[in-house]
Write a structure and sequence with these properties.
Elements lengths: L1 H47 L3
């Protein structure tokens, strides 16, 4: 019984790890594709700030 609980816990942790990995890979791809455009937007925002 206890080993089954450990297996389910390990499976849950593995699922979360795979989910985080997928999100991280998606962010890397999106930044690679849209990185320059995001940088331009941030620069425009910073220029508009009243410092």
């Amino acid at each position: 019984m206890l080993s089954r609980v450990r297996e389910e816990t390990a499976q849950g942790l593995t699922e979360y790890a795979l989910l985080y990995l997928g999100v991280a890979l998606a962010l890397i791809v999106l930044l690679g594709v849209f990185g320059e455009q995001v940088t331009d937007v941030y620069q425009r925002i910073i220029i508009q700030l009243p410092f």
